[in-house]
Amino acid sequence: MSRSLILPFASLAALVAAAAMPGSAHAQTMGYEGVDAAGGNASEPAPYSPGRSGKRQGKGGKRIDIAPYIEVDQIVTAQITPGDEVLTYTQLAAGVDAAITGRNNGASVSVRYERQIGWGGNSRDGDAISGIARGYATVLPGLTLEAGGLATRANIDNGGFGLGRASDNARTDVYSVYGGPSFATRAGDLNLNANYRAGYTKVDQSNSYDTLPGNLNLDVFDESVVQLADVEAGFAPGTLLPVGIGAAGSFYQEDVSNLDQRARDMQARALVTVPLGRTLQAVGAIGYEDVEISSRDAVRDANGVPVIGSDGRYVTDKSAPRVLAYDVDGLLWDVAVMWRPSRRTSLSAHVGRRYGSTSFGGTLSYAPNDRSQLSVSVYDNIAGFGGQLNRFIDALPDDFDAVRDPVSGDLNGCVASLEGSNCFSGALGSLRSSVFRARGVAGSYSVNIAGLNAGVGVGYDRRKFIGARGTVLESANGVIDETYWLAAYVSGQLGRDAGWTANAYANWLSTNDAVFGDGASYGGSASYYRLLTQRLRASLAVAIDGTSRDVPGIDDIWTASALAGLRYHF
User: What is the CATH classification number for the domain harbouring 341?
Assistant: First the structure.
């Protein structure tokens, strides 16, 4: 296994052990908006909390399901257009799916390692790891640790992701992990909350930059470190005053390795919570923000041309001064309402001034019964690729089943769960290295009825990139990438010993960057499996995938694949 695979594999696997620790309350989520309105009590709706996902609390009892497996598959892939090449592979895989639930902890983990052995001169050997993990553990009363991670593969397409397999030439590996503590306590009527998160994201682009039209270089994201902290203190309505009052502050910083970019977001604000009824309340906030984005320039040769390293990324000039690309400070304000008529329905919406302009967002959670749920979120933030991916991972529930392509084993962009926001496809939009302001909406619906498990996620993500003038990133300044995405899955049983699955995805990328143009990727797959013994399972699967580029001279690519395999569960 290569060194690039060892770190993410160890990070994801370690979450299984961490989640088994004792604990009691679920920690808060990661994200700039992670500061609550002050207070709240059991008879009133939960306080307004934009960006919080409302994850499951411990339900009592303990459940530990750990299912390791090994697998051998024979795969045939045929290009439909523009060529007719047929490739054959033997795929060896090992993985584990685990779920841990207790009164004070919970986690779900799915990790898979694959070794692909090609038959024939054009079939390449290779290995890959994919996985997703999310969990929490309370180590002391009021002190909770959270962690999560994602390892996935995708194709670079015009600077964005197409989660298809139509071409392996631009295969890219993405690894992201995060974790940190949350603390909540009470001093008399005063509620105190504090959170800290640290995250790391790495993109291994292999030779993907060589595949762009005319060998034009795209500054693909490399790695970043994210740190976030927030603290809040406040009194609930009806304690010190008829209204709730509080104060909160937060700090966000992302350091991107490409050209030493740094995004820093600091804010402090006072909050007032006004009850408007048993199920409705309003929150007002006013304060101060300071947001800066800066970077360095690339090394330039004697002709002033930026130098590109062996990895296809610009070489940073460490001796160059840091240049500001974005600098906003001053007054911020926010007005929000939250409606919670029952434990199954929650709606919040807010509008205010952030980043020097109007900002709005909100969340909707609706679970009409124990077999279905709907989740919608609207967001607005500033981040790099790594910080945005950490936010989406943290918003996932901790009780889920991974949804994988039955042929490739890749994650399909959503997890199967009846809790919270289920998809991370929105984070896998443009892969430019530049920091951006992201606005978008993501929604998911899932249902589990009579053995039929199905779900769909849809979303829209708009990223406006920010680059410093006088540097190579100036060419990205003002570029807008818009991604529309869809991911769906359905599975069912055929008696006691057999079952089936079907998946579909679609991603459309629109950009005002005239060099790279628009693009799209789409595909679907289906599989059938049958238990041969209690632990041995046979599978058949088929898939079709396609990519298209709105660039002259670039043909659409369509491939079809088929798999026959055996899996042994320990």
Answer: 2.40.170
